[in-house]
Each structure stands twice: as C-alpha cells, then as structure tokens.
C-alpha cells in the first residue's frame, strides 16, 4: 500500500507525475483527507512547486467527459442478462448435479471468508449465532445517556448510542473486520480496501471500506443506515440462501436505507437532513436569471445527490434567487414553486416533474 | 464564482488494481456457476463497458445488444474459460473486438455507404470543453486548440484507457491490439502536445479555470 514512499519522485518529469496514480488521486481529491504525503513532499521539495502545478493542470485538463451514463438503463440491461442466463434448462442441470453444487457452495463460502467479495457472506446469521456463545468476544454495553466512545484496533471509531451494545470478536482486524450491533451507533471506519468492515444489525448487514455512517436498530422491526461520507453496501441476511442482487443496496452520502424486517423490505431514500459535501462548499448559490438546469446541477454537486429531470423541458426555465443555509428540501420547494413543478424522493434520488417554461 | 460553462462530473473511477483480489475470487465463483457472483460482476463492470462501447460506436442500443450477447456467452462458456489476469481489461478487450466485428458484419447488410473508416473513438477533454465554450483570443490557447484537434482517435482512446479507466500499458496494449511500446508512445506524444506553448499563458489567461486547481487546497 505504501509503495509510493519508495518512489523517487524527486526525479519525476511532468509526464511521470501526470501518470502516477497516487499523485493523480491527490490532485483529483480522491485521497483520504488525513493523507498528507503530498503536502509534506511539497514542503520538502519547494523547488518542484511549478512542476507539480503543471502536472496538476494537465491531469485536470485531460479529464475525459463523462460520456454515456445511464444507471437506470444499465440496471434494466443487467436484469435482462440475469433473466437470460436463468433459463429452465440451466436449472435442471443444477438439480442433476446437486452434489457438485454442494461442493461449489462450500468453495464459495471458503472464498468469501478469504477474500470478502461484495455481498458474498452467505451465512452471516449463522456467524452471529456462533458469536453469541463464543468466549473470545468483547462486549461493549452503553447503559448511560451519553454516547460511549469505542476505538477499535484498526483505528475505526464508534460512538455507541444509549441502550445499545456492540460485540467485537477478539480476532477483529486480523483478516476480517466484523462487529455486531444492537441499538444504534455512529461509525467512522478506517479505510482498508483489503478488509471490508461489516456491521450486522438485526437482520441487516452493512458493508463498507472506509466511511462515516450511522446504524439505528432500536426498533425490533426496523433498521436504518444513513451515510455521511463514502459508499456503503447494505443487504439483508438470508441464512442458507444466496444473496440476490435485488437484495443489495449501494448507498452514497446523504442516502439512507431502511429495512423493514417483517416485510423483508429494503428501501432506499434520502436522510432527513442532507448535508453539503465538504469538498463542494465553494459552489455558487447566487443566481440571477440562471438556467434552471445549471441550478439543479449545482445542487446535485453540492449535496452529492442525483436529481432526475427532463433537461429539454427545463431548458427555458430560469431562477433568480440566493440559496444559502436553508435545507436541501427547502431549496427544492423554492425551485419547484418557481417553475410550478413537484418533487419526490424515489429510490434515494430526487425526481422533479415539471411542465416546462415559456 | 462561476463555473466552466457547465460543471463536468466524473465517474467514480478508482484505480483498477484495487478490486483485483476481489475480481479473482469473483471470477472463480462465476466459473463455478455462481449466479450471484455473476450479478456482482455485471453490476461492477456493465456501466464502464457501456461507457467505453458508446465511445467506439455511438449507438447505445447496439452496444447494449453486444454486451447482452457477450455476457450470456461468458456465462454459457464459463466452464471452459481460462483464469484471467485482469478482469476489467479482459472485458473491455472482448467488448471492443465484438463491437468492431459486429459493426463490420452489420455493414454487409447495409448499403455500402460512406463507411470507409472502420474506427471511431469519441472523447472530449475538459480543456477542449472549455476552449469550445469560451471565446478564445489568446494566441497560445488557439495554438493549443489546433494541437488538440490533431490528436488522433488512437491517442484519444489510449488517454481514455490510461486516465479514465486507469489501466496500465500492458492492459492497454492487449485491448487495443498494439504493442506496449506503441501505447507508451501514444501517451507521451499526446502529453508533449500540451507541454509547449501554453502553460505560461494558461496560468494568466484561465483564472477561473485555475480557481480549483491550486495545489494543496483539498
């Protein structure tokens, strides 16, 4: 992971910097904020400032346009491929070869423990049960009113809320990072792409690489997971069953998943109070006859959310307003009022239905 | 502050080696007939493949069909498939071959029209976007625009694969069916185009553009 420290960056030319992944990530703001390698490097080699600035400029100016992006159409295409491979003939083959299937499943379980592929934890509930009786498990319980601070061996921080408990296996962090939560907690997980961090809570599994998020499962029937930064994957536990794609949700900042246990339903929505993305705080919010499409794009950037709307329809719509500290929903209300539109939250996205402007 | 015409959003393109271990495990499971893993593979790579395909041939429906056939074929032939070193570049290469093959085949059925050039690759860089959307008066920027217009389709594709898909030269050379040396050269030639003429000018001429670019401000 730290092979960049070994690199002879002081001998690098412009082209080398431009192509260096670690440098690119820094320029594009993809590194963890606490990673100070390049800031320190700059201090050490002040004479390289001009070169670094040029390289950064080339990286930024040579960014490719987004091109074709259509998550909804992609999801439909994926479904149709999954349907195409799932033909009856295929199933018969499976039944006939049930012995080899059993072997495959064993292999699958083995591999998933080894390498932790997405959503591949076939028996989380089983695991949870085995932990309950295991002696090598550390138990944190917060009976006080104030949140209890827990620092894990990997540097991840947890604020355990009142009337909540957290179980951590003693082997935590050696090859996997897994905890079991009852109640509610806020997590700030140290990034480690090789060892995803799993939170099991009342039938719902949350998987992250390194993010800040909150899990609430006070209610026997309801678990909610809300994300403040980074990406989070959630899925419901299904003992002895394959995790299907439709069970899995990927959450981005300001999105929230709610799991209704009895109905076995997992829905995606937005958090109650969406926060502005810290890296996008400089986005302008003073509009003077500004095109509505621009305003909506700014909002998307500022809050890291997806807003669905008909660009053609809104082509002639303008906005003159100063959007400042009001909440995202208030801003949407204002916009919708201006152009006689409506908005709703669908699947964690904001859908704007409008009639267009003259 | 104002933006560059309209803000360009970039896909979440993390370096390819990051998912490599997971990819290997995923691929093994797919080979063993695990449908859920196949689904994860699709979720992970379908969007980038669509993005790449539409740049080669600007016809999303056509690319969609190619990908459908490609993935169904991969699933049906999963037992015979070799292990792959890099799943992403394997998929990109398979798609590229298929798109070019199918386009040629399709042409047989169509009238022989102006279709002389077999090969397309559409990509626009941030700087081009800026130059196109703003009136450029400064000489060195005009020169830059001329230089950028001179970039070949191949150079554009290499830049896309290198910087957008974050692939290394070995992977790029396999995908584009060129040797490694040519891939390296295409990139260096492209970067050289930028090196001259315009840096000094751009620093003073593009203040807005530079606004977010000061180092250490993240």
From TrEMBL, chain A:
Q: Which GO terms describe its molecular function?
A: sigma factor antagonist activity
Residues covered by the Protein FecR C-terminal domain: 286-352
The reply to whether Glycosyltransferase figures as a keyword in the UniProt entry is: no
Q: Tell me the Pfam families matching this sequence.
A: FecR, FecR_C
TM annotation in the entry? 98-116
Signal peptide (residue range): none
**Which UniProt key words apply to this protein?**
Membrane, Transmembrane, Transmembrane helix
The keyword Transmembrane helix appears for this protein: yes
Q: Which residues form the FecR protein domain?
A: 149-232
Q: This protein is called what? A: Uncharacterized protein DUF4974
User: Which species does this protein come from?
Assistant: Dyadobacter jejuensis
UniProtKB/TrEMBL annotation, chain B:
Under the heading CDD domains, the entry gives: Sigma70_r4 (cd06171)
Q: Which GO terms describe its biological process?
A: DNA-templated transcription initiation
Entries under Pfam families matching the protein: Sigma70_r2 (PF04542), Sigma70_r4_2 (PF08281)
For the keyword Transcription, the answer is yes
Record domain RNA polymerase sigma-70 region: where: 41-108
Q: Which GO terms describe its molecular function?
A: DNA binding; sigma factor activity
Record bears the keyword Transcription = yes
Q: Which InterPro entries match?
A: RNA_pol_sigma-70-like (IPR039425), RNA_pol_sigma-70_dom (IPR014284), RNA_pol_sigma70_r2 (IPR007627), RNA_pol_sigma70_r4_t2 (IPR013249), RNA_pol_sigma_r2 (IPR013325), RNA_pol_sigma_r3/r4-like (IPR013324), WH-like_DNA-bd_sf (IPR036388)
Domain RNA polymerase sigma factor 70 region 4 type residues, every copy: 148-194
Q: Which UniProt keywords apply?
A: Sigma factor, Transcription, Transcription regulation
Q: Which domain of life is it from?
A: Bacteria
NCBIfam families assigned to the protein according to its UniProt record, in alphabetical order? sigma70-ECF
The similarity annotation says: Belongs to the sigma-70 factor family. ECF subfamily.
Q: Which PANTHER family match?
A: RNA POLYMERASE ECF-TYPE SIGMA FACTO (PTHR43133), RNA POLYMERASE SIGMA-70 FACTOR ECF SUBFAMILY (PTHR43133:SF46)
| The protein's name in its UniProt record | RNA polymerase sigma factor (Sigma-70 family)
What taxonomic ancestry is recorded? Bacteria, Pseudomonadati, Bacteroidota, Cytophagia, Cytophagales
């Amino acid at each position: 992971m730290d092979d960049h420290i070994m690199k002879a960056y002081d001998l690098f030319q412009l082209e080398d910097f431009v192509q260096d992944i670690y440098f690119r990530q820094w320029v594009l703001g993809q590194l963890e904020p606490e990673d100070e390698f390049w800031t320190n490097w700059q201090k050490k080699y002040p004479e390289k400032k001009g070169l670094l600035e040029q390289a950064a400029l080339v990286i930024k100016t040579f960014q490719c346009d987004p091109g074709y992006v259509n998550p909804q159409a992609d999801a439909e295409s994926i479904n149709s491929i999954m349907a195409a491979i799932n033909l009856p003939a295929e199933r018969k083959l499976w039944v006939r070869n049930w012995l080899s299937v059993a072997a495959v499943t064993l292999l699958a379980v083995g591999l998933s423990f080894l390498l932790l592929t997405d959503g591949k934890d076939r028996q989380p509930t089983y695991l949870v049960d085995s932990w309950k009786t295991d002696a090598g498990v550390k138990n944190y319980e917060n009976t006080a009113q104030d949140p209890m601070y827990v620092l894990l061996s990997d540097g991840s921080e947890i604020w355990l809320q009142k009337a909540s408990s957290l179980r951590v296996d003693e082997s935590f962090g050696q090859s996997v990072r897994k905890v079991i939560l009852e109640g509610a907690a806020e997590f700030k997980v140290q990034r480690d792409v090789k060892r995803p961090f799993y939170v099991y809570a009342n039938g719902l599994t949350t998987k992250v690489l390194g993010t800040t998020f909150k899990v609430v499962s006070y209610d026997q029937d309801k678990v909610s997971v809300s994300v403040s930064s980074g990406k989070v994957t959630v899925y419901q536990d299904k003992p002895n069953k394959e995790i299907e794609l439709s069970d899995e949700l990927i959450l981005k900042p300001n999105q929230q998943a709610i799991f209704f246990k009895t109905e076995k339903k997992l829905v995606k929505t937005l958090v109650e109070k969406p926060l502005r993305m810290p890296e996008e705080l400089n986005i302008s919010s003073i509009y003077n006859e500004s095109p509505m499409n621009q305003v909506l794009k700014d909002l998307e950037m500022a809050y890291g959310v997806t807003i669905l709307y008909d660009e053609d329809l809104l082509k002639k719509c303008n906005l003159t307003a100063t959007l400042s500290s009001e909440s995202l929903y208030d801003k949407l209300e204002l916009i919708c009022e201006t152009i006689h539109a409506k908005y709703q939250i669908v699947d964690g996205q904001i859908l704007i239905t409008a009639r267009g402007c003259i | 502050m104002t933006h560059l015409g309209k803000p360009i959003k970039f896909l979440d393109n993390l370096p390819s080696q990051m998912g490599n271990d997971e990819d290997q495990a995923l691929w093994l499971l797919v080979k063993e007939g695990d449908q859920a893993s196949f689904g994860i593979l699709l979720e992970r790579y379908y969007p980038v493949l669509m993005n790449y395909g539409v740049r080669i041939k600007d016809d999303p429906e056509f690319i969609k069909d190619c990908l459908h056939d490609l993935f169904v074929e991969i699933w049906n032939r999963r037992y015979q498939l070799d292990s792959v070193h890099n799943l992403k570049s394997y998929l990109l290469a398979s798609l590229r071959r298929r798109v070019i093959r199918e386009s040629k085949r399709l042409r047989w059925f169509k009238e022989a029209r102006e279709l002389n050039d077999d090969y397309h690759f559409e990509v626009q860089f941030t700087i081009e976007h800026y130059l196109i959307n703003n009136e450029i008066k400064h000489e060195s920027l005009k020169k830059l625009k001329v230089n950028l217009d001179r970039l070949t389709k191949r150079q554009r594709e290499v830049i896309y694969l290198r910087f957008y898909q974050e692939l290394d030269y070995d992977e790029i050379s396999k995908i584009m069916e060129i040797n490694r040396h040519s891939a390296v050269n295409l990139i260096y030639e492209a970067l050289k185009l930028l090196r001259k003429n315009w840096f000094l000018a751009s620093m003073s001429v593009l203040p807005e553009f530079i606004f977010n670019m000061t180092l250490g401000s993240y």
